[in-house]
Amino acid sequence: MMKGPNSYYISKYKLPLDEYFTFGLSVDCVIFGYQEGEIKVLLVQRSLEPFKDQWALIGDLVEPDQNLCDAANNVLERLTGLKNIYMKQFFAFGNVDRHPLDRVVTVGYFSLVNSLNYNPIASSWAKSAKWFNINDLPELAFDHCTILQKGIETLKNEVRHKPTGFELLPLKFTLLELQLLYEALLGCKFDKSNFRKKILEMNILKPLNETKENVSHRPAKLFKYDVERYKKLEEEGFSFQL
Amino acid sequence: MMKGPNSYYISKYKLPLDEYFTFGLSVDCVIFGYQEGEIKVLLVQRSLEPFKDQWALIGDLVEPDQNLCDAANNVLERLTGLKNIYMKQFFAFGNVDRHPLDRVVTVGYFSLVNSLNYNPIASSWAKSAKWFNINDLPELAFDHCTILQKGIETLKNEVRHKPTGFELLPLKFTLLELQLLYEALLGCKFDKSNFRKKILEMNILKPLNETKENVSHRPAKLFKYDVERYKKLEEEGFSFQL
DNA sequence: TGTACTTATAGTATTTTTAACTTTAAGCAT
DNA sequence: ATGCTTAAAGTTAAAAATACTATAAGTACA
Predict the structure, then answer these.
(1) What pTM did the predictor assign?
(2) Strand C–CB B193 distance below 7 A
(3) Candidate CATH numbers 3.40.1670.10, 3.40.50.970, 3.90.79.10, 3.40.50.12780; the one for domain B22-161
(4) Who is most buried in A44, A176, B192, B217, counting CB within 10 A?
(5) How much is the pLDDT for A214?
(6) How far is the C-alpha of B168 from the C-alpha of B178, rounded, in Å?
(7) CATH topology of domain B169-235
(8) Continuous H helices in chain B
(9) Which residues touch strand D (CB under 7 A)?
């Protein structure tokens, strides 16, 4: 691709047209996980200036011939090796001074991963990667604190109305595990019996003929989230609500 | 501001660093209004190529030293003369091919205006401006159809959970007017008595000692939306729901 | 083998909310 | 004064949310 500012733009602009095509564009990913009953977010420690050694969201400049969402998926894959992960754009951050040296507008994406047993790949711009509890975060580089908070807010809002939360669980899970996840996400307690009833009545869980193993008490049935069923129900007007 | 790509970027990039700073950035505004019981959107007819004579959202390139939201407010003000209007960013559109000639990433904002009695200002890039029913839209330039639909979706979603809808009404309104607005927004019917009860119990409306005039039947009381009260209630955990 | 313990699962009762409908009141017009 | 229209308040029945109770099914250990 070799395009440049075109002459059809009208002459009202204050600056030469070239100067309107000087924006840098980046994506930043808030990668959520779920571990030991807590919602976590994956951060990297920068190995470069500016903000060297500080924790930051993982992100990168977008290539001139790259779609925004592809850039975001790329960043995630480079760090975690994971593909085809649930991902959602939540906000564009475009204040003039958000980047100390250049004019870079960044678009925030969040993704939800369930398998935490992979190695975050250390790369040239990051010394290390680490999961942090979303209620106990370090100081962050750039305006990443703002971005992260907005991401958390969006996630918490989304999981109420859409069955997005399941992405944080392994494929097979028990009803109690699901309940604990939602308690962590929404910061509230549910009555066990009622939660069970409510979620089962939605008919979006497929019961498996398997039970949890290696537990020292009665093992619970395992369930699977049935995306197909949900989509069908959604078309018929059903709306998820917890 | 005269910044340029800085040397702290690492060398993994495929292209010379300069070429990452060639993005154009624009904002596009979906301006909603409410007239004769219908939700409207303000569109302009382009007077320039590309897409000359076609209807489009109103938008513009962002200045290199301008915040995103300021750019959006500017666009609205230039077209309508209105300041301090409710405005909300809803999505960034960044596909490579969304603009036929340049790489321009655009950020969508929507705003809600109530006073429809002003003159949309014809400008150098727009022949005319016109309100369209959101259920009866013309063909649109660029990817503005996608942008507009996403804006409508976001608005419809937002008005359920936040008292944003009031922005579409005049300062003083009757309960029936409010009901009709929400019926238009959500595409459903409410029971008059129940709607009334529900909204009044929220305690976010301030009853005025005035009534609707020039009606050939019993005039209804006028109410005002009480933002302060809502904000206080919100802090206490109240959440708007219709 | 059986008893204690833990969690799963099912069921019931109570309260609260939602939804549908009815009644009365208030103003305008003739 | 009568009829018409809409405002505004009240009533009732159904449904949903919530709190609570009872039973079942497995493990662990004496």
Answers:
(1) 0.93
(2) yes
(3) 3.90.79.10
(4) A44
(5) 81
(6) 10
(7) Arc Repressor Mutant, subunit A (1.10.10)
(8) 68-80, 144-161, 175-186, 192-201, 227-235
(9) A 191, 193-194, 197-198, 211, 215-219, 241; B 174-176, 192-194, 196-197, 217-221
